[in-house]
Amino acid sequence: MDPDDFPTPDVEVDAIEPNELKRRIDDGESVTILDARMESDFEEWHVDGDSVEIANVPYFHFLDEAVDEDLLDRVPEGDPLVVLCAKGGASEYVAGRLAEAGRDVVHLEEGMNGWARIYEREPVSRYDGPGDLYQYQRPSSGCLGYLLVSDGEAAVVDPLRTFTDRYLDDAADLGADLTYAFDTHIHADHISGVRALDERGVTGVIPGAARQRDVTYTDDLETTADGDAYAVGAATVETIHTPGHTSGMTSYLFGESLLATGDGLFVESVARPDLEEGDEGAPDAARQLYETLQTRVLTLDDDVLIGGAHFSDAAESAEDGTYTAPIGQLEAEMDALTMDENEFVDLILSDMPPRPANYEDIIATNLGQRTADDEEAFELELGPNNCAASQDALTGD
User: Do the domain assignments include residue 392?
Assistant: First the structure.
């Protein structure tokens, strides 16, 4: 049903903003949620957290005239209970029905769409290169990006199209002009913002190795190759070709202090190798990833920080709240980084999660082979990223 089609309950209920819900979860407050979406949507992705209790009862169960005791028994108590849906219409209706039955409830403003618009910027405190480095975090999908600011100039890596204005505004608020927007690769889980930023006067940069994937706009943007370097104020951003997840995967070394690895290496796992050439090409890509990690990434100094383009529910943040970790720490904690090639390939091919939702359409859009307006682009990327080789952390015991 369209949100406007739901009848209005007699009892009005308050709304909670997505950022306020996120704050409560981050602060470890007890949060109880009723997700009123369809079961399949709930299973694909939902709000999670150590202090979160969540139940799924689809909205259509509340369309009958009476909300009976059997239905109420399926609904957890909350202080208050947070009811959510996809866009906010169904949850407001369900929350109203529950309020009529005497429950203490609020509903999530704009539903999971509102949750997907949360985008936080955290300073990377362990970065010790020139300028200041920040990590962007999108909790709904686990997408990460990076903003480097130095001497009045700024650069962003792996920007999301949905937040184009945000990068420009943040740079300005930090006293800088956004001069570069870099993509690490052709993404499969979100619509890249590099072209949108280039249209706003920022120099868009994509890996030159992506040409072989028939990118339609390589002549419109700047392409980068292994060893290229870009000045951002007093800082340098160095290009390092790191294929494996994709043939064009490229990492960027900020101030010799943090390596933005795209989807090559995460703080809890390594990349999945099947999103470019499918299952048939995955073994060769996995071997390429092994070679990349051993010769291009792990040869950097142990104290160089790794910052991927994503984090999963299995990832643990550092003390500064960012999903970053020194190479030496990851090598000590992640057995996959010290395995021989055959063991490594067998491991990352053995437990790959489902491919990201809508990944074929997203890849085609990021290649420039199909178009999507802003609303469609936002809808395409809703859901988890699933770009790691495993749903579980490969670190620890």
Answer: no
